[in-house]
Amino acid sequence: MLTLYHAPQSRSSRILWLLEELDAEYDIKTVSIRRRDPAAEGPVAPMIGARDPQNVHPHGKVPALVHDGVTIFESAAVVLYLTDAFPRNRIGPGVGDPLRGPYLSWLAYYTGVMEPAFTAAMLGLKGTDSTIAWAPVDDVLAHVEAALARGPYVLGETFSGADVLVGSVYILFMGAPLLPRTDLRAAYVERLTARPAYRRAQAKDGATA
Ligand SMILES: N[C@@H](CCC(=O)N[C@@H](CS)C(=O)NCC(=O)O)C(=O)O
């Protein structure tokens, strides 16, 4: 039994997308989460709402997954867990596959470099390559987009769980000041959002309160 702890239009929405890509059977447990106050302006907005006591995530966040009684949390861990547990079309290249190393690198890069770089840029935090554990957001975008230029996916020809994570940022931020629209970015977003599994997940996602 597989249960996704989910809040509509959040980081768990992309796990819904992945579950659809993998043709997995799953239940959705919708939980409430704290969210930015939509009335607030600026990058540091107060949060409204409260942790949901039914949520198994240690910090009351989403996504979290429970599989046969085992809890998995943190998006990259959830993606790797799912693509290993439900192998399909190299969406998660397995051990022995030449794409396994690049796949693991992209999952860790997403969590350890790309998300912090975007968050830091949104908060206006300044650093240099040697003083932060990640890289400046422009360098991150250059790295991702060099891969996409070879593409069409970050692993090359193969769509993977890494695109679910990296692509979710492009889908969310396209056209925002941090991510002005370019042909390459728009084509990537279009390629991802046209996938039938993405559309099924969107239909299941639901609206925020
Ligand atoms: N590093 C975590 C971040 C999870 C996260 O921050 N999720 C947000 C939703 S997009 C959340 O649950 N926020 C509620 C809160 O912080 O209380 C992951 O990637 O899984």
Characterize the structure shown:
The chain is an alpha+beta fold and 209 residues long. The protein has 2 domains: 2-91, Glutaredoxin (3-Layer(aba) Sandwich); 100-197, Glutathione S-transferase Yfyf (Class Pi), Chain A, domain 2. Helices cover 44% and strands 10% of the residues. The protein is built from 7 helices and 6 strands; from the N terminus they run βαβββββαααααα. The strands form 2 sheets. It has a 4-stranded mixed β-sheet, with helices on one face. A hairpin with a 2-residue loop joins strand 5 (64-67) and strand 6. Helix 1 crosses helix 5 and helix 5 crosses helix 6. The longest helix has 24 residues, at 100-123. The radius of gyration is 17 Å and the shape is globular. Glutathione (GSH) binds at residues 10-11, 33-34, 60-63, 74-75.
Uncertain runs: none
Average pLDDT number: 94
Total of DSSP H or I helical runs spanning 4+ residues: 7
Main β-sheet description: 4 strands, mixed
CATH class of the largest domain: Mainly Alpha
Encode the helix/strand succession as letters: EHEEEEEHHHHHH
Q: What's the β-strand tally?
A: 6
Rounded to the nearest angstrom, the radius of gyration is: 17 Å
Ligand types: glutathione
- Kindly identify the CATH topology of the largest domain: Glutathione S-transferase Yfyf (Class Pi), Chain A, domain 2
- Strand sequence of the main sheet, in spatial order? 2-1-5-6
Share of residues in helices: 40-55%
Distance between the termini: 27 Å
The CATH architecture term of the largest domain is Up-down Bundle
Structural class: alpha+beta
Q: How would you describe the shape?
A: globular
Oligomer: single chain
Residues in β-strands, percent: 5-15%
